[in-house]
Amino acid sequence: MKVASLRLHWSVPYRAIANTPGSRLKDLWGYVQEDSAAEAFLLAIRQDNDKWSGHERFFIVAPETAMDEDTMSLIRNSYPDVPIKGGKTFVGREGLFDNSKAAALLDWYHKDV
């Protein structure tokens, strides 16, 4: 038996809706384009995928933030006192969520329309 728990971020028809300054601060500026999220559900129930079994949890979120501003700038301006673990730096609009498990086990990659 396979059980996939998909943790969708803010599901929107397109990124511009999620790009509203200040409104997504507590969600770390994440979003998922709704067609891409629907694809994740379809991939999770595929019968021919033998890469996993049992229960798995997946983040289903765009690999970049919804904002136009660089991620490091967003972090510095919104969370100035929070240290970044391990000295990690974010390049451009790189998101703060790790989708690698969804890519590896579901073959899911976020697509914006």
Could you characterize the architecture of this molecule?
This protein has helices spanning 15-18, 34-44, 71-78, 100-106; strands at 2-8, 11-12, 32-33, 54-60. Strands 1-4 form a two-stranded parallel sheet. A two-stranded parallel ribbon has the order 2-3. The chain has 113 residues and is α/β, with parallel strands linked by helices. It has one domain. The radius of gyration is 15 Å and the shape is globular. The protein has four helices and four strands, in the order ββαβαβαα. It starts with a strand and ends in a 7-residue tail after the last helix.
Strand-helix topology:
Layout: E1 2-8, E2 11-12, H1 15-18, E3 32-33, H2 34-44, E4 54-60, H3 71-78, H4 100-106
Parallel strand pairs: 1-4, 2-3
Can you give keywords for this protein?
113 residues, alpha/beta, two-stranded parallel sheet, two-stranded parallel ribbon, 4 helices, globular
